[in-house]
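Open question from group meeting: does this chain pack into something compact, or does most of it stay loose? Before anyone orders reagents, we agreed to write out a predicted structure and look at it together. Recording both the input and the output here so the notebook holds the full record.
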Amino acid sequence: LTELDVPLSPLLDKAVNALDRVLAVVPNCQQALELKAELSLIHGEALDWSNDEAGKTVRFKQAVAALQTLLAMDPSRSSYHLGLAYAEFSQNEANARNRAEKALELDPYNLQAVDLLKQIFRFTKDKDVWNDKYSQVKAALDGIPMEIAQSEKALKDGDLAEAERRVSEVLSKQPDSASAHALLSRILKLRNDRAGALRHGIRAAIL
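C-alpha cells returned:
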C-alpha cells in the first residue's frame, strides 16, 4: 500500500466524496458510513507510512466522524469501537486502549482488538499477558473450520441438536461468519423455525 499511496490517494478521495454525496441524501446510511470509515482508515494509514502527518490527520478525522455516527446508531458493534481505536492509536494511545478494550469486551474473539492491545502493551510488564491472549484467541479462531465441519457432520447424521450447538459455538466466536449463519439457517429450517432460518439466511447473504 505504501508503494501505491501517491496514485491511490486521489482514488480514495474520490470514493469518499462519492460516499459523502450518498450521505448528504441519506445521512444514516450504515453501509456508506462503514465504507467511508474503512476507506478513510486505509488512506490515513497509507499517509502515515509516507510521513504525511496533515493528510493522515484529515483522513483519520473523517473515519472518526463516520464511526461516531455509527456508534450512536449501534453502540454494541465491536468493529466500530476497534475502528476508533485504530484512528486514535497514533494520537492518543490511552483512548485507543480504552476503545480496543471495549471492542474486546463486546467480542472476546476479536483478534484485531487483541493484536492492537498487544502493540499498546508491548513495552510494559503486561506484554506477555497480551501475547498469550493473542495466541489463545488465534488458536480458537483457527479451529472454526473444524467446528463447522463437525456441525455439518452432525447435520448429515440427523443430529440437529448437536449441529445447532456446534454452529452456535462458532457464531459466539465469529459472529460475522457467513458460512456459519448459512449453516444455522439450514438447521433451523429443518427444525421448522422459519423466522430463525430466514433471519440467519439474510445475515449470511449480507456478509
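Observations to bring back to the group:
The longest helix spans residues 5-25.
Confidence is low (pLDDT under 50) at residues 1-5.
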